Amino acid sequence: MKNTTTKLEQLVHQGVEFLSKATVLDLTTKSSPEKWSKKEILGHLIDSGVNNLQRFTEIQFENKPFKIVSYNQDELVKANDYQNADIMELLVFWKAINNRIKIIMEKQTSETLAYPILLGNEEVKDLEFLMKDYVVHLEHHLHQIIDK
Fold first, then answer.
1. What whole-number distance in Å separates Cα of residue 95 and Cα of residue 122?
2. What's the rounded Cα separation, in Å, for the pair 129 and 123?
3. Running DSSP on this structure, what letter comes out for residue 3?
4. What is the pLDDT of residues 61-98, one digit of tens each?
């Protein structure tokens, strides 16, 4: 997990650096009405962090295999009104939740990383897969923010 936690740390640092210097116009512009702005993508990453922090901690004490429950991504972005939120509030929250996730990742053992997880498509994976996939997902969306 060391590579995964190091990557997570680097991505969050990169995101904070970019987003804290971006203009309001750059953060709120949408390529089309149905697409997310950079601020809304950050909001989606916050929602992902919230949901995955809960998963990463609950699997420690819930029955196995741990069943992944999906969440309504578009609806959460709208309900949280990330488009009109203060960017510094979002950055502090995103950084904090990812720091907490990194700490949870660092606490895992080979036994806990092997805990079985049942995905929505009935495929069985393990906690290590889920944690690594979280960082891959974060990196994907961070590229959407930075490289647009």
1. 32
2. 12
3. H
4. 999 999 998 899 999 999 999 999 999 999 999 999 99
**CA 109 distance to own-chain centroid:** 22
Residue 78's CATH number: 1.20.120.450
- pLDDT band at residue 121, thresholds of 50, 70 and 90? confident
Domain of residue 82: give its range.
2-146
* Residue 122 pLDDT: 87
**What backbone phi and psi angles, to 5 degrees, belong to 66?**
-75, 125
What lies within 8 Å, CB to CB, of 20 at 6+ separation is 87, 88, 91
Segment holding 91, helix H or strand E: helix 87-106
Question: Rounded mean pLDDT of the chain?
Answer: 96
Total of domains in the chain: 1
